[in-house]
Design goal:
Number of helices: 1
Structural class: mainly beta
Order of helices and strands: HEEEEEEEEEEEEEEEEEEEEEEEEEEEEE
Shape: globular
Strand content: over 45%
Largest sheet: 5 strands, antiparallel
Radius of gyration: 21 Å
Helix content: under 10%
Length: 338
């Protein structure tokens, strides 16, 4: 059936309007600044919105970027291979995991002085803080345990036995803790209150899960996998629901739950995958942004929604965590919406 021209124009305008709305709903990011820093390896990154600081675990110290001071770069602390840098909300404290001496350090972010050192398990790596309980969970990768820390009391209150190969954790609903295990391709669970391990969640089709995000609204967990996939899990049923395509070499999942997005930096392919948290079938990819090879971790500023990704230029392709990098190329990419 042939439609009148006026009807066709109305339909065409409707389709164009829908496409424009969809495009507006998915902001496009681009690299707007490269903030140079000293040479050295890096791991996790965080943003402290109260102090307007970006923190990067940077070899034997913490690299700090003062967002309110013209992105001025400084370093502080003496750490035996820093892994996680976790701001403690409302206390002007930074929790740092020190992998090679099995400690967790607490720094006063005003004075930059270390105020506590706590002994934990072997190779403390990923860590997360729950402001509602004042508890932090630190993953001891090689000893296969989670240290639960009362940050105010500055002491380890319990140690939960898990399996070796632990990566990034997230607190879920109630007292549940979730953590990726890269050696066994599962998400392990535990009850933080009782200190007991729970059932594991098989991540079929996901190799070496590292970064982990949790969305409280939908109950979805997103695990970044090393085989170009991300695994989406329903935390309520404890089951894998589907896999989505991302880039190569990810090591973090950056959550922006208020705006219903997650961002997965992929250092092998030099891309940032943009994931919508909502949809009839759950989390799904809505875009990809070119970044730089090596940019595998990062954090988002909740105030501006700028994203910060540390990286350096690899000497040999394909880049990865254990490759060498060219001297003088370490930098933190700032990605802004446009």
């Amino acid at each position: 059936m042939r439609l009148p021209l006026s009807r066709m124009l109305v339909l065409s305008a409707g389709v164009a309007g829908f496409a424009a709305a969809a495009a507006a709903a998915t902001p496009t990011y681009s690299v707007t600044k490269q903030i140079a820093g000293p040479d050295g390896g890096w791991d996790y990154t965080s943003v402290d919105p109260a102090d307007h600081m970006v923190y990067v675990a940077h070899d034997a110290s913490v690299l700090a970027i003062d967002l309110a001071g013209g992105d001025r770069v400084t370093t502080f602390g003496t750490i035996a291979h820093a892994h996680a840098v976790v701001p403690i909300a409302g206390q002007h404290l930074l929790l740092v995991t020190s992998g090679h001496d099995a400690t967790v350090r607490l720094f006063d972010t005003n004075t930059r002085q270390q105020v506590a050192s706590l002994s934990v398990g072997n190779d403390p790596d990923g860590a997360v803080y729950d402001a509602s309980t004042g508890m932090a969970a630190v993953m001891n990768a090689k000893s296969g345990s989670a240290s639960i820390i009362d940050v105010t009391a500055r002491k380890v209150v319990r140690t939960i036995p898990l399996m070796s190969g632990l990566e990034f954790p997230q607190f879920g609903a109630g007292d549940r803790l979730f953590v990726n295990n890269e050696d066994h391709n599962v998400i392990e669970t535990a009850n933080v209150a009782t200190g007991k391990a729970g059932p594991t969640i098989a991540l079929t089709g996901c190799t070496a899960p590292s970064g982990l995000g949790y969305d409280a609204k939908t109950g979805q967990l997103i695990s970044a996998c090393d085989n170009g996939k991300a695994a989406v899990v329903d935390a309520r049923t404890m089951k894998l629901t589907h896999l989505i395509d991302i880039g190569d070499g990810p090591d973090a999942v950056i959550m922006d739950a208020p705006h219903r997005r997650a961002y997965i930096p992929c250092g092998g392919s030099g891309t940032l995958t943009i994931v919508s948290l909502d949809g009839p079938h759950g989390a799904h990819v809505v875009g990809k942004v070119r970044t730089a090879r090596g940019a595998r971790t990062g954090a988002i500023d909740p105030a501006t929604r700028d994203i910060y990704l540390p990286t350096a230029t690899p000497t040999t392709p394909p880049p990865g965590e254990h490759h060498a990098y060219r001297p003088g190329t370490f930098r933190v990419l700032k990605l802004s919406r446009r």
